[in-house]
Design goal:
By secondary structure, the chain is an alpha/beta fold. It is about 35% helix and about 20% strand. It is built from ten helices and eleven strands. It has helices at about 25-40, 60-65, 75-85, 110-120, 160-165, 185-190, 205-215, 245-255, 255-265, 285-295; strands at about 5, 20-25, 45-50, 70, 95, 100-105, 130-135, 145, 175, 180-185, 220-230. Strands 1, 2, 3, 4, 5, 6, 7, 8, 9, 10 and 11 form an eleven-stranded mixed beta sheet that branches. Helix 2 (about 60-65) links the parallel strand 3 (about 45-50) and strand 4 (about 70). Helix 8 (about 245-255) crosses helix 10. The longest helix has 15 residues, at about 110-120. It is globular, with a radius of gyration of 19 Å. The chain starts with a strand and ends with a helix. The model has no long low-confidence stretch (mean pLDDT about 90).
Length: about 300
């Protein structure tokens, strides 16, 4: 049975965004993440920590910091944990981040500028969107990421070098926002029902939430190239027993997550590039049907 407790600690202020940050016995990374938000943000943000277990001192540290938080004695994953944070949110924006991220100076300025641009252009204060910062990672070939090694863990993290090179790491805005760190209006979060718990503990919940938004009519999935966040990567997911999210996504939606992110979100394409909007294929298309059949009877994740 999923069990957790909620704690409203922080005084309500005129915050800009509300951070929801899940963490699982990862205190040294959580401290670095939260401290980077505090010292490198241009605006003040509400921070809610979703604590799973917290046996490494996380619970005591969060209590001492005075943050709002939810606490589960057992690991309830990210889907249940993030949904549990909903009633603690004091702003109109949900900003989802992982605890192994470091936010560079003034990361929030271009995010808010993009939000204001979208709402001004549409003359609609209820405009829905998902907007991501751009990750800097030490390795990989993700088209949405700036690849530059400033350390693979806390011990090897070269913060001074990272800050010195910040201006050289900026890239063009891009399409295909789907994973954290990202922000959406709270109204949008409520409309789609937050995280889908069938993906517990969380693998493939990111493209799922984007597809739910897509089906609600959202088309602005934007990565902001000058909002930069360093990502150590997989400091929690590498330890957890993973759900078969790839299979769940296919059976739920009738297409693969790769098809959705590449063909519809246009992951990694420059935002300035004009792209034709595709329509999601019918679930009974031959290729997708074959994949669903194999997913039903196969054992692969």
């Amino acid at each position: 049975m999923i069990s957790f407790e909620k704690y409203k600690r922080a005084e309500k202020k005129d915050y800009c965004f509300t951070f929801i940050i899940p963490t699982w016995n990862n205190l040294k990374y959580l401290e670095l993440c939260v401290n980077s938000i505090r010292k490198n943000s241009a605006y003040e943000h509400q921070i809610i920590i979703a604590i799973n277990e917290g046996v490494d001192g996380t619970l005591q540290w969060v209590e001492n910091q005075g943050f709002d938080y939810i606490y589960a004695k057992e690991n309830i994953g990210i889907c249940y944990a993030l949904n549990a944070c909903r009633s603690l949110i004091d702003t109109k924006f949900v900003f989802y981040a992982n605890d192994d991220m470091y936010f560079l100076p003034n990361w929030d300025v271009p995010i808010l500028e993009r939000i204001n641009q979208l709402t001004d252009n549409q003359k609609d204060i209820h405009k829905y969107y998902m907007i991501s910062s751009t990750l800097i990672e030490p390795s990989g070939n993700n088209p949405c990421v700036v690849v530059k090694d400033f350390g693979t863990d806390i011990e090897t993290f070269r913060e001074t070098d990272l800050l010195k090179e910040q201006s050289n790491l900026v890239r063009n805005d891009w399409r295909g926002s789907t994973w954290p760190p990202n922000v959406m209006p709270l109204d949008c979060w409520d409309l789609i029902g937050g995280m889908s718990v069938e993906f517990h503990p969380g693998m493939y919940s990111d493209p799922d939430i984007s597809l739910k938004m897509w089906n609600a009519g959202v088309r602005d999935f934007i990565g902001v190239g000058n909002s930069l966040v360093y990502h150590f990567g997989c400091k929690s997911t590498g330890r957890v027993k993973k759900n078969k999210g790839k299979k769940t996504f296919l059976l739920k939606w009738g297409i693969t997550a790769h098809t959705f992110t590449e063909k519809y979100l246009k992951r990694g394409a420059e935002l300035s590039t004009e792209v034709e909007e595709d329509r999601l294929p019918k679930p009974n298309s031959i290729s997708q049907l074959i994949k669903r059949i194999f997913a039903c009877f196969g054992n692969k994740n």
